[in-house]
Amino acid sequence: MGNSFGCSASGERLVSAARDGDVVEAKMLLDCNPCLAKYSTFGGLNSPLHFAAAKGHNEIVSLLLENGADVNSRNYCGQTALMQACRYGHWEVVLTLLLFRCNVTRADYLSGRTSLHFAAVNGHVRCIRLLVADFVPSAPNESICTQSDSEQLDDANVRIKSSQSALSKFVNKAADGGVTALHMAALNGYFDCVQLLLDLHANVSAVTFHYGTSVDLIGAGSTPLHYAACGGNLKSCQVLLARGASRRTLNCNGWLPVDVARMWGRHWLEPFLAPTSDSIIPAFPSNYLSLPLMSVLNIARECGFKSVAATSSDDSDLCAICLERTCSVAAEGCAHELCVRCALYICSTSNIPSEITGPPGSIPCPLCRHGIVSFIKLPGSPVKGNKQQMSLGLCTPCILHPRDLERQSSASTPDIRKNRVASVSSEIFCPVTCSPFPSVAIPLCTCNDGPCPSFEPRETETEGESPNRSQSTSVEQDKMEGPRFDRTTCSSMFWGRRSCSREHQCNSEINA
Predict the structure, then answer these.
(1) What residues are paired with 371 via a beta bridge?
(2) Could you tell me the CATH number of the domain that includes residue 343?
(3) What domain count does the chain have?
(4) What Gene Ontology molecular function terms does this protein carry (predicted)?
């Protein structure tokens, strides 16, 4: 693999093209020698796929995979391209890797972290939503069988239990020191990630271990509530308490969550974390679970993403969202037809709260506001060929509307108006930094009775990534959120120095 092909100069040119996003250069090199897709830098640090995934160059990722690059290839640290994409929040790259059936459960060599850990520690909720797509079945797919057919009902129950077991194992997989994705999201104050992980049945009682190479200043035996108390985000603590977290759990140091909050200067959390507290915990509806994602993802794997232009003058077969491709999927219930690209984009990005009660996790139809829980493949849809473009070249997305609970039979397709819909700007990707696995910078608070020093608030994420972090200057919201803290570039709190040093070699090569 890699340098054994005897084409180091061409391989380095491909690495540079993957890092810089030069699609023309990458295509020219791969046309001359497709084996370059498997090239790796000296010492096996990273492959061109790792560079393209870390930088968010989705076209080059697709080009490399189509030319034989291993979607599950590891770098020197055992990290896959999926981990790199999740680290920096490039959800479109994550989607492309999923279409090529990457393994989401793999862990790295250093600390046993999965892609879910990398997404949760940096608050990339869209990446988390995509990572669990193959574990969350659509509701209609599991309710097809009737009560009269006991054999089909038993098979459906077995499938449901099996998928729930696999999802629980994946979401609650512990990295070095017993740290789960919920621990990291709670520590860094990513409320939307905490809420989604809890919707996916993350264990609120999971505790860290007293062994491992990681250094934990909170102490072994700490629950996600201990970590949320250390991070200082009030809403994360509230949603954990609402989902069954205990205020009375002691870690191995004999600390309650309120003791951790007091030690780290999070005094605004003490009224809520006190064991005798009777504070009212508000309800937080979740908008990030996506039920139809599994169905449309499987259809996309089967059909591919080859753009099919309409050959007829009739516009009835065109997708009503992009007006560029023919419809290939239909929504269960309202039976509105879309192309597979638009359907995937809607399922990956929609987080609009529903005005009408609907199934949790349903996506509002952009045409009628009906709650979509599954997509079906239309008859006559093309089957993926050997050499098709499979990257998510985003079509003109729609402005999503709230969903509806009503579900109707899809026997007939209603006649709908095909109107061009206003477009939404694509998400701004976060830049690549050299932080191997960042945590929060937790300053020691030495003020026992006096006021705590003031800290600058952490920069908010993009509007598309997390609507819960909208920019507001009201005093009430500032009290709810509490101070935010800048993240360190190298986490000495959880991951050992040896791990950070080795990982820094791979990351510094990518960021060179």
Answers:
(1) 364
(2) 3.30.40.10
(3) 3
(4) ubiquitin protein ligase activity; zinc ion binding
Strands 337-338 and 371-372: unpaired
**Same domain assignment for residues 358 and 335:** yes
β-partners of residue 318 are 326
Token pair belonging to 73: 């290839």
3-state helix, strand, coil in the chain (%, to 5): 40, 5, 55
pLDDT per residue over 314-349, tens digit each? 566 888 888 888 889 999 888 899 999 999 999 998
Mean pLDDT of 185-212: 92
- The Cα 133–Cα 353 span in angstroms is 20
| pLDDT at position 299 | 93
- How far is residue 398 from each of residues 47, 147, 366, 401, measured CA to CA in Å? 36, 39, 7, 9
Q: Are the beta carbons of 383 and 343 closer than 8 angstroms?
A: no
Residue 506 lies in a domain: no
State the number of CA atoms in the 13 A half-sphere of 233 facing the CB: 29
Backbone dihedral region of 2: left (phi > 0), alpha (psi from -120 to 50 degrees) or beta? left
Range of the domain at 89: 1-103
Tokens of 114: 């999965």
Count CB neighbours of 112 within 10 A: 17
* Bridge partner residues of 331 (DSSP): 375
The per-residue pLDDT of the chain, averaged, comes to 75
Note whether residue 330 is domain-resident: yes
User: How sure is the predictor about 310, in pLDDT bands with cuts at 50, 70 and 90?
Assistant: very low
CA distances from 259 to 208, 222, 225 (A): 17, 12, 11
